[in-house]
């Protein structure tokens, strides 16, 4: 019979292996995209493929957990931004989201359409709306900026992050600083209409990957 101490060590080792696999997957996917095989992820984590499959029965399960962690980080950044003074929380959050995106380049295409993160998405956008209202009330952001305008900024940042992968880590920061400058009060009138919530939903739906019916996508044999 296993002692309580032995079981505790085993649970700790399992948790550490799981996190090593997630860290390795984030790094490998960021470098080479989602097409990379799980064998490479296991090698990077320093564990066997059998260990990987015990933690994540399919490659899809591994990707889904990475996406969940990304949105969990988004929500954590949003909560931290709520304590910022003088309406500065929105900008703090925007830079926080950029940082999370930059360290999780490989799975960005899946962030907005994973069903497992629906609750995180709702919480994140609720806080985002509150921070936007505070930024407006403190005169940091122009009054005609809407929530979907900030969504578009996040999408634009994602594009810069993905485009500059492996070349520069500061490109998205410069782009975001320019976009925030354009959100300041006093800028000229905006003729273009904002993206509507319905259009936002349609864009998110467009990111949804096609259903995969091949057996490998549902089994440990995925590469």
From TrEMBL:
One of its GO terms (molecular function) is DNA-binding transcription factor activity. SUPFAM superfamilies: Homeodomain-like, Tetracyclin repressor-like, C-terminal domain. The keyword Transcription applies. Gene3D superfamilies: Tetracycline Repressor, domain 2. Residues 37-56 bind DNA. It comes from the Bacteria. Residues 15-74 form the HTH tetR-type domain. InterPro entries: Homeodomain-like_sf, HTH-type_TetR-like_transc_reg, HTH_TetR, Tet_transcr_reg_TetR-rel_C_sf, TetR_SbtR-like_C. Keywords: DNA-binding, Transcription, Transcription regulation. PANTHER family: HTH-TYPE TRANSCRIPTIONAL REGULATOR BETI, HTH-TYPE TRANSCRIPTIONAL REGULATOR RUTR. This is TetR family transcriptional regulator. It comes from Williamsia limnetica.
